[in-house]
Amino acid sequence: MFKKALLVSALGCALFVPSLVSAETLSVRSVTPNPLGAFEKLYVLNGNTIANEKMTLDRSPAAVMMKEGETRNVRILHINDIHARLVEYHRKGDAHRMAQIAKIVKDARKSAESNNEAVLFLSIGDEHIGTVWDELLGANEDEFQMSAPYHALSAAGLDVAAVGNHELDKGSALLARAIEQDADFPVLTANLKGSKHNMPWAPAAIGVVNGVRVGIVGLTSVIDTYLETEADPGLKGYNPAVVAANVVSALNDHVDMIVIASHVGYNGKLPGDQTAKYDLKMGDVQIAEAVAKVATKPALLLGGHTHTVLNKDGFSNDTIIKEIPVAQVGEYGRYVGNTTVSLTMGKGGKVTAEYGTGLIATKGRKTETEADYDVDYQKNILDPIKLRLDERLKAPIGRVVKFEGLDDAKVIEDRYVGESAIANFMNDAIVVRSMHWPTGQVDFAAFNATGMRGVDMNGDLTYAEWYSVMPYADEVLVYEMSGAEIKDLVEDNARRILRPEELKKNGGPLDPSNFISRGFQHYSSGIRYEINMGANVMETKAVNITLNGEPIEKVLDKKFKMVFNSYVSHGREGYDGGAIKGLPPEIKGFNLEALRKERAKNTYLLYRGQIIDYIQADAKGVVGPETGAKYDQRVVVRGASVN
User: Fold this and answer.
1) Class for domain 10-388, per CATH?
2) What topology is assigned to 396-638 in CATH?
3) In this predicted model, what pLDDT tens digit does every residue of 282-294 receive, in sequence order?
4) Which of these, 112, 367, 492, 612, could form a disulfide with 590 (CB 3.0-4.6 Å)?
């Protein structure tokens, strides 16, 4: 639970007033709060929050209710980066993460009724992109059905959400539909402007709860967001620290406390053994510093985007920046933030705040019981959505050309021993789709043999059938690698190939139809090489390696972008620099895990989702040799029979 941490006065900060004579006026509009939420009254702001002018409001929406000497308590339960992990399905049992969160919120609000405490529930962005639930968003407006995360969060009593970068992965038009149809709460971003669509988001909100006026400002990362796209060229992102200070200056006289809902990322000192996912020059540290200069009311920052776990034991000196506490709770609903604010009204309207924070952990499938989650919520809210999802999965995404290399039996025969037509298709598709990512075009892509099967070639190809081809929800990570590192990787991969004498059909112990976690990978067409098997694994060599047609020796110092999936990126299948299952102990695997921590970026896009996008948009619904599902000799195995 939370620990008391500090006592601050926001008026102790130096007040910064821009030296400008003109002022930008933001309008105030009353809206209906989520009927299942905590706010009694709710207002959203609109206007030009990016102008370098002093900000004012056109009216004060709520009068001061706190009296001198009075103390009011606000508890904020907050999540970030759930990435559509509403339920974690597993053949050995499910983890009902969202239903657990709904119960935590419901229980907290019931308890608060008896102790003069208000309980808000906030999400700090990236509710979408990451699981099969996203298929209900569709690929375009015609296919849109619903936002399962927004619908589920509305039913759980969410009060406000920030716009995360991944909310825009499927385009601003689909996000607008999702907000309008399924969000019973304001969705906030103050630093994204210029969409050609009439986006139903707002820069900030003022809510009244338990006699406290709470101002909330939403901020979105400008680095990893789809901005200025072909579909919405006017949508731009602006400096979140500058914008936050602009809006806070307008809120000061009209609220009792300020919450910055920042999906920009934590770039302060990391606790424990956590490593930075991003090298952020602009992040929560700079935002807190900018807000501290102008805030005249207590302020705190609730964060997201970097999936950082902060404050397990309460606020520390590292997570208090210029008297502004900063909190963030990791990813995927594994924690709920539990931040408390005790506000006291002093003389002359001076408000002071005492803060506390901590984490509430949800449970995984191995430890969860029915007592841990809201069974009625699961039954009445999530299970009906799952029925719609099951219908969606039956929908066709294209057709498969009959070709032996795509047949399940042939893929099983190929995947561990050399070139695979379906793997060629998948990796080349990723390189093509990367042209649409905020991270930019990549050079190469890789995928491990254990993560794929063949495809049903009878009739239409459905979503469900492609999920059978790629059954795992692998995320896409973009690595920066030198030619020398790719050379080491390819040489490591050559040793992982199954040798003919190991195969069951030749009297060996290994059956390719089973899961063989040796980590053999397939590459996109820009990487070509030969494997000389030799007499044994110690003699196996990768030779004649070329990168985009250049001999590897000529590009050892050149930098490339290469995609791996999250499974191997976290060191599985011997990619942690240690022993490789089934190989002599003196052979150590390439350390993708260490390289990930040093210089890889997780896009949080799903590998299989990007393949589906390729099938629909780039391959015109066709999976076959003409769209890349073919053998092209990108890897040639020599020196031993593999048939």
Assistant:
1) alpha beta
2) 5'-nucleotidase;  domain 2 (3.90.780)
3) 999 999 999 999 9
4) 492
